[in-house]
Amino acid sequence: MSKTSSGPYRDRRPVSRAVERVSAVGETKSLNGRQWLLLYVYRHWITGLATSDARHLEFAWSEIATTSGPAPARRVLSALEVLLGTLSDHARRRICYHPPCCGVTAADELRVLNLLTSLQRGRRAAAEANAQVLVRPSGLPSLLEAADNLAEALSAAGLELDDAGEATLH
Fold first, then answer.
1. Where are the alpha helices (DSSP H) in 69-158?
2. Which residues pair with residue 37 across a beta bridge?
3. Whose CA, among 64, 71, 120, 151, lies 20 to 30 Å from 32?
4. Do residues 64 and 77 make contact, with C-beta atoms less than 8 angstroms apart?
5. Residue 71, class by beta-carbon neighbours within 10 Å (0-12 exposed, 13-18 middle, 19+ buried)?
């Protein structure tokens, strides 16, 4: 997979229409290592797609590939593109995020982390509650499917999100 020009996201409307940067609800230092890694990759991938800056996509690729190897990294990033495309297509409103190296977290970033953690841990009701805040009702099945696929890809890559350190909204 070419990290900048292929994958399921390329034919979707621009991610910059569906995401924006906003105020903080927490600090990244409160996240455990895998949550922080996923947030870092998520932010770089969104920023790279929104700005057409391949450096951000390369950073995301490097972090995942170094952690889990090239094949699992491709699967994770492909699933992440589908998740972002689904969010873009079905968002209730703009999805909020912070720049990649920012030390604070946005509520929507934590919701995405909690959505994935809940799916990995078999807590479907909690996953649905997080998803409902992010997308319109018509997009809920699509977002849950995309998040399921990403949660499975993360698990296959050895990136189980720790239950004890689940990110919380303040």
1. 70-90, 107-120, 124-134, 140-156
2. none
3. 71
4. yes
5. exposed
